[in-house]
């Protein structure tokens, strides 16, 4: 698996972690950037000068989950565990993804 990384500047705890992207996620992100060139934030909030809030991301995820008709309960935290499981399945070490 090739690794495509997105740096999350000034995230929680004033850290700059990286997010792993798949090729398909990178393609979607590039298309989004073409259609919505970032001014200050890649994902602006309701007010352009502020970034999208964690709660708004949760709401969007919950709406997408409802539209998907999946019967399982899921959350953004579930996605975090899913990528960890996926990386373990590819024999990645804990050090490899601990920082993501």
Q: Explain this structure to me?
A:
The chain is mainly α and 100 residues long. It has a domain of 49 residues. Helices cover 47% and strands 8% of the residues. It has a two-stranded antiparallel ribbon with strand order 1-2. The longest helix has 15 residues. It is globular and about 40 Å long. The two termini are 16 Å apart. The mean pLDDT is 81.
Short overview:
With about 100 residues, the protein is mostly helical.
Query: What's the total count of β strands?
Result: 2
Reading the helices and strands in chain order gives EEHHHH
Structural class: mainly alpha
Oligomer: single chain
> What are the segments in which pLDDT stays under 50 over at least 5 consecutive residues?
none
Number of helices: 4
Strand content: 5-15%
How much helical structure, as a percent, in the residues? 40-55%
Mean pLDDT: 81
C-alpha end-to-end distance: 16 Å
Largest sheet: 2 strands, antiparallel
Morphology: globular
Spatial strand sequence of the major β-sheet: 1-2
**Cα-based radius of gyration, to the nearest Å:** 15 Å
Label this structure with key terms.
100 residues; mainly alpha; two-stranded antiparallel ribbon; 47% helix; Integrase family protein; DNA binding; Integrase-like_cat_sf; DNA recombination; DNA_brk_join_enz
Set out the fold topology:
Layout: E1 4-7, E2 18-21, H1 23-35, H2 54-68, H3 76-89, H4 94-98
Antiparallel strand pairs: 1-2
């Amino acid at each position: 698996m090739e690794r495509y990384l997105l740096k999350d500047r000034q995230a929680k705890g004033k850290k700059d972690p990286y997010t792993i992207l798949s090729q398909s996620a990178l393609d979607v992100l590039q298309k989004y950037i073409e259609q919505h060139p970032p001014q200050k934030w890649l994902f602006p909030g309701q007010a352009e000068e502020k970034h999208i809030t964690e709660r708004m991301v949760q709401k969007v995820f919950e709406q997408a989950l409802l539209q998907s008709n999946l019967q399982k309960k899921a959350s953004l935290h579930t996605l975090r565990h899913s990528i960890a499981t996926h990386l373990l399945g590819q024999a990645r070490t804990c050090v490899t993804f601990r920082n993501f």
